[in-house]
Design brief:
Blueprint (H helix, E strand, L loop, with lengths): L2 H10 L4 E5 L3 H7 L4 H21 L4 E8 L7 H24 L2 E6 L7 H14 L5 E9 L1 H14 L9 H5 L12 E4 L18 E4 L9 H12 L16
The chain binds farnesyl diphosphate (FPP).
Length: 246
């Protein structure tokens, strides 16, 4: 196989890990004169569609930002509506996800969420632990800065000496230690910011920002983002065509 066909094949490989900020639920609902809750409800359907689309494209890891450490600032009825929706979604879709071969993992601060929700996430992880088709990381009560702090605390508690605390060592304590760094980061809803999502893990991730509102997201929008990803020239800080490039 020639060097150029290896490059061509490599360029068309799907991203291994896609991370998504699912924004625009509220605006989707508002456009339809509905309460914001209905936007979140439609957002759950978009999550299920996107999981299937990722499996169909051989994507191995999907990480979705379901509830941020900052989302507690929302009106209390919206927060409780979201919590109820997530509980209902877990009980409604867990069997389906399991039969699709999805392994659910939850990243975020579980200490300050309701006991019922903690049990639901623990149960979802335990039931799907054997699955290998796609790992769905649900970021829940998650913040990128929280993640760096919790990893540092764990490293200290494990007795890692300061001079051994390298980037690789700290990565072992981060919430996504089980996954490669995201290749592709998608944010829907038209805003162009990270909002304290995977700060540590996106150092060399490709970013795609879409005006599509999250409840409208599906296979077509995922393909558009993957096409944009394939058009990028990933150099990881190196130089293209350098004589000593790997
Ligand atoms: C942002 O839209 C969306 C959220 C804060 C919640 C996203 C959560 C879900 C789609 C449910 C996920 C559930 C599972 C089980 C993974 P927004 O409300 O900020 O929208 P706006 O910017 O239009 O107001």
């Amino acid at each position: 196989m020639s060097a150029s066909s290896v490059v061509a094949q490599d360029r068309l490989a799907p991203p291994r890990h896609v991370a998504i900020v699912m924004d625009g639920n509220g605006r989707w609902a508002k456009k339809r004169f509905l309460p914001r809750f209905f936007g979140h409800k439609a957002g759950v359907d978009a999550v299920v569609r996107t999981i299937q689309a990722c499996i169909d494209r051989d994507i191995e890891f999907l990480t979705v930002f379901a509830f941020s450490s900052e989302n507690w600032k929302r009106p209390s009825d919206e927060v409780s509506g979201l919590m109820g929706l997530v509980l209902a979604a877990v009980s409604r879709y867990l069997g389906k996800l399991d039969s699709m071969g999805v392994r659910v993992r939850v990243i975020g601060d579980r200490d300050s969420i309701a006991e019922k929700l903690r049990q639901a996430w623990d149960g979802a992880e335990a039931r799907t632990a054997h699955n290998t088709k796609l790992t769905l990381n649900v970021a829940f009560n998650y913040g990128g800065r929280w993640d760096i702090v919790q990893a540092s605390r764990k490293a200290i508690a494990a007795g890692v000496p300061a001079h051994e605390l390298t980037e690789d060592k700290l990565s072992e304590f981060m919430a996504l230690a089980h996954a490669p760094d995201p290749d592709l980061f998608i944010r829907t809803g038209g805003e162009v910011r990270i909002s304290n999502f995977l700060l540590w893990q996106v150092a060399y991730t490709e970013f795609v920002f879409s005006d599509c509102l999250w409840p409208e997201f599906g296979a077509q929008q995922l393909d558009a983002a993957i096409d944009a990803f394939h058009g990028r020239d990933r150099r990881f800080g190196g130089v293209k065509d350098a004589p000593n490039a790997a």
